[in-house]
């Protein structure tokens, strides 16, 4: 086996050596083009940003030479090998993935490139520059390069920028816009800047109602006659023979809304309802959407000037309801004469609804890293526009059965999960007090009411019942920021039907026992999210999510049982704690589908008052496909705790079955992502570090308490992964191995156990 491996390595090395030499494949009358050098020769040392100018000039150099690697041309080599009479399967495959067409000197048009360089310089204000070219050939290697000497002249700079006004009414609206321009004295002549200025003015004029205007109607003129030192005056005016309708603003004369629009029905006559100066076209006897509920989402108002931004905002707000598949806003010009000073537009808003009801079933085969496996079934029913106001109700039913396999004496343990839940979402704010319509400028908040009941039975151990209810709000402050506030969040957990075996386990583990004792959790939660990842083409992308969670304070005020310890409400012991965490992510786009993704997470939960330990459902866990991937899910920590060292003579503590949790969590991740087989298959190399800790030392969890030595208690792992990304749906496979295991003795923690990697399968990226 070793001989075979060495043979493969030798073949690869020989292939690379061969790839370094391709001159024997180059035709007799050709030279392989190796690119061009540009030398900038300014006529004065005062020219600013010469390096940027050189970079712009380099961008016009075509064609690009063949890529080079380790002194050779592997892409070109594979191309030549595939061009043979009988190339073979491997050569064809390598050529398809890595091959490059050769670029010869004959492909380079030297004269045309000189013209492109001069044109780029003139567009940037460097008039009367000079370019000379020379070609250097190497007959031995059969390569050639080009050299361009660019004589750069002093650029023309602007002295004044002014609007040429006449009697047209549009100039009154243009004048303040020109005064707000970023064009300043001493600015270099630059066609790109002028194009951007025209587009800015066009956008601003459209916001003032100029529906038929476009940037092509604006003309810049530069006058150098007043100066002899490369200065110019820049004048802006409207071109001649522009259509009259492009020079007048338009107002909205009528707003028609079709709440239940369909292509085959649009031509039919329908009833109409007038509400708040808008016409809602729908059957009076069978109203699809109540006008008073739909009206707040429409920002287009009769009598207002036409505005593209308001149109986009209206479309965005209507789309946020969740009841419509297509939203089309169409403007129709009402008879406008050339002599009119203001035009009229009729706005027609066509809304095509989604199916009112939908049923979805999901059947999954679940395999967990704690050796539990089994089927899972989920059924969901959705009803959109429930009360004719865009309300959405989702009802879900869940069933899961898992059995533990390959776990020694514990093989055959099983788990049954049953659950039913519902979410009722109102696309408006249900609140005792009224807010001004302009208070939520970007989006209208949603009100969400959730109810869930779950039952979990783990054979030979216990059954756990839980019920939860939340009432809260979700709203987008802008394109990047989302707020979530749940003023009411109630959870009740009841540990029932415990077996003597499980009672013994709780007796051996006071920390676990305490986390199950407090059955009633009532509090509030707020979450802030900034998602800069929506700008996928940006070089630097940021994401921040911060959550605050409080429980028990209100109950502590009203319980009235000050002498009790712990206190109860309705004979239920309630939890009291404060919890805060932050998830920060940064992505660096490297281009060509590659990026470096990083994440930092920090969380702390503080039990107080009525609680000594955080409730089990509110604790932090570490390990698994979205955490430190070199450790199994929820099997890292707390701290340096090692359950194998704390078994009793009967081996009661089962590390494969019980989660290891804490009220403190720190984690850091870094991942390099790159195309593997584009466009659908990507690769990754990553490293993770993190752990959870407790804030109190428990006899059952020795070594779990957070201390100043926490850096030496991090679980660290590294690995590689493959992602199948099909239009945003990502299937992820990660293989990770531990490098630093905090549960081992201090001198043995750097284990580098690459021979026993952990396989992770997940949906979506980890961060």
Automatic annotation (TrEMBL):
It comes from the Bacteria. Keywords: Cell outer membrane, Membrane, Signal, Transmembrane. It is found in: Membrane. Signal peptide: none annotated. Pfam families: Omp85 (PF01103). GO terms for cellular component: outer membrane. Residues 570-764 form the Bacterial surface antigen (D15) domain. Its main location: membrane. This is Surface antigen protein. The lineage of its organism: Bacteria, Pseudomonadati, Bacteroidota, Flavobacteriia, Flavobacteriales.
């Amino acid at each position: 086996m070793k001989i075979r491996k060495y043979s493969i390595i030798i073949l690869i090395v020989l292939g690379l050596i061969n790839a370094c030499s391709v001159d024997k494949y180059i035709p007799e009358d050709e030279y392989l083009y190796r690119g061009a050098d540009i030398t900038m020769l300014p006529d004065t040392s005062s020219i600013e940003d010469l390096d940027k100018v050189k970079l712009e000039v380099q961008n016009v150099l075509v064609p690009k030479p063949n890529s080079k690697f380790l002194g050779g041309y592997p892409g070109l080599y594979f191309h030549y090998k595939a061009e043979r009479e009988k190339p073979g399967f491997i050569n064809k495959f390598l050529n398809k993935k890595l091959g490059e067409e050769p670029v010869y000197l004959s492909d380079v048009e030297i004269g045309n490139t000189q013209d492109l360089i001069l044109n780029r310089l003139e567009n940037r204000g460097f008039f009367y520059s000079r370019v000379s070219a020379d070609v250097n050939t190497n007959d031995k290697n059969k390569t050639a390069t080009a050299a361009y000497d660019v004589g750069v002249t002093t650029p023309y700079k602007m002295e004044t920028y002014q609007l040429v006004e006449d009697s047209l009414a549009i100039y009154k609206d243009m004048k303040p816009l020109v005064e707000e321009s970023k064009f300043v004295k001493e600015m270099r002549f630059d066609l790109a800047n002028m194009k951007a200025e025209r587009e800015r003015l066009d956008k601003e004029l459209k916001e003032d109602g100029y529906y038929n205007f476009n940037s092509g109607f604006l003309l810049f003129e530069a006058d150098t006659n007043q100066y002899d030192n490369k200065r110019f005056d820049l004048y802006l005016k409207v071109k001649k023979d522009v259509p009259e309708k492009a020079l007048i603003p338009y107002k909205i004369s009528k707003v028609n809304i079709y709440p239940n629009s369909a292509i085959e029905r649009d031509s039919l006559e329908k009833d109409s309802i007038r509400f708040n100066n808008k016409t809602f076209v729908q059957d009076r006897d069978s109203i699809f959407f109540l006008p008073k509920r739909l009206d707040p989402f429409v920002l287009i108002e009769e009598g207002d000037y036409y505005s593209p931004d308001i149109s986009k905002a209206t479309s965005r707000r209507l789309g946020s309801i969740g009841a419509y598949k297509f939203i089309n806003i169409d403007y129709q010009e009402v008879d406008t004469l050339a002599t009119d000073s203001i035009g009229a537009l009729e706005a027609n808003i066509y809304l095509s609804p989604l199916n009112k009801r939908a049923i979805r079933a999901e059947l999954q085969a679940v395999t967990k890293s704690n050796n539990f496996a089994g089927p899972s079934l989920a059924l969901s029913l959705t009803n959109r526009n429930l009360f004719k106001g865009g309300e959405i109700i989702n009802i879900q039913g869940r069933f899961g059965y898992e059995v533990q396999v390959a776990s020694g004496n514990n093989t055959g343990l099983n788990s049954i999960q049953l659950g039913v839940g519902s979410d009722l979402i109102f696309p408006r704010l249900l609140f005792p007090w009224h807010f001004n319509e302009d208070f939520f400028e970007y989006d209208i908040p949603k009100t969400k009411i959730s109810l869930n009941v779950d039952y979990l039975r783990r054979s030979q151990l216990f059954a756990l019942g839980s019920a939860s209810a939340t009432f809260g709000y979700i709203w987008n402050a802008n394109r990047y920021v989302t707020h979530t506030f749940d003023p009411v969040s109630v959870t009740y957990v009841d540990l029932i039907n415990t077996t003597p075996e499980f009672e013994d386990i709780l007796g051996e583990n006071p920390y676990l026992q305490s986390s199950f004792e407090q059955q009633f959790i009532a509090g509030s939660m707020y979450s802030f999210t900034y998602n800069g990842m929506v700008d996928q083409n940006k070089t630097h992308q940021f994401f921040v999510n911060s959550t605050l969670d409080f429980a028990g304070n209100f109950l502590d005020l009203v319980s009235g049982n000050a002498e009790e310890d712990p206190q109860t409400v309705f004979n239920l012991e309630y939890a009291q704690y404060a919890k805060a965490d932050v998830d920060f992510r940064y992505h660096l786009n490297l281009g060509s589908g590659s990026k470096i993704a990083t994440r930092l997470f920090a969380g702390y939960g503080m039990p107080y008052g009525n609680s000594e330990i955080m409730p089990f459902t509110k604790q932090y866990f570490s390990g698994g496909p979205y955490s430190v991937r070199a450790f199994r899910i929820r099997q890292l920590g707390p701290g340096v705790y090692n359950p194998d060292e704390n078994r009793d003579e009967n081996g009661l503590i089962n590390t494969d079955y019980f989660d290891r949790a804490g009220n403190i969590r720190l984690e850091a991740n870094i991942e390099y992502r790159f195309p593997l087989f584009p466009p659908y298959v990507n690769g990754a190399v990553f490293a993770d570090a993190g752990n959870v800790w407790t804030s109190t030392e428990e006899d059952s969890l020795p070594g779990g308490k957070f201390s100043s030595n926490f850096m030496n208690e991090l679980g660290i792992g590294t690995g590689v992964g493959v992602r199948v990304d099909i239009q945003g749906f990502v299937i992820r496979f990660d293989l990770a191995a531990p490098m630093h295991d905090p549960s081992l003795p201090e001198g043995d923690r750097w284990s580098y156990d690459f021979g026993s990697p952990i396989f992770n399968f997940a949906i979506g990226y980890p961060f």
